[in-house]
C-alpha cells in the first residue's frame, strides 16, 4: 500500500488531498504497531535492568531493531512529504496536511531518539505543528477535523515528549471549544470526523486531568 501510494503521488505534478490522506493512512498502519512495540519493549527493558535480568541485553537488541525500523520508515515518510511540498498545491488544505505530517513524523523520531537527536526532532516537530496551526486558523473552520487533529497531536508532543501536561491540557481544552463552533461550515464527512475527534479529545482531557491530580 505504501509503495503504491508513493508511486501514485510521485507520478502527479500536483498534490491531491485525497492521495495525501491515503499515503498518510498507509504509513500510519505500518508505524503504529512498531511504535506500540517500541514503548512496550522500553518498559520491559527498564524492568529487566531493575531486576538485573539476564535477558536485558536481548531486550536492548529488540528495542534497537524496532527503533531502527521506525527511523527508516519515518525518514522515508519525511522525504515524501518534502517532495510533496516542492510541488504545486491545489489548495491550502494540502499545505496544512504536509506540515501536520512533518510534525507527526518528527514526533515519532523524537520518541525513539536520544540526547541531541531527540531535541532536534522534537524542535522540528514543534515548528511544523505551529506552522500548520497558523495556516489552519486562517483557512479552515475551527471545527474542521484537520485543525483539531493538529491540536491533538501537538498536545501529545507536549505531554509525552516534553512532559508539559498543563500546556497539553490547554491545547486539548481549546480544541474542544473549537469543535463546538462553525460546524455548519464543514462537510458531512468532516462533521463525522469531528465528532469522532471530540470523543478522543475528551478522553485525553480526562487522562491528563487524572495524571495531574495524581502528581
TrEMBL record:
Q: Site positions for Interaction with phosphoserine on interacting protein, renumbered to this chain?
A: 35, 107
Check the record and name the Pfam families matching this protein.
14-3-3
All residue ranges annotated as the 14-3-3 domain in the record:
1-214
Gene3D superfamilies this protein is in?
A: 14-3-3 domain (1.20.190.20)
Q: Which InterPro entries match?
A: 14-3-3, 14-3-3_dom_sf, 14-3-3_domain
Entry superkingdom: Eukaryota
Q: Which family does it belong to?
A: Belongs to the 14-3-3 family.
Under what name is this protein listed?
A: 14-3-3 domain-containing protein
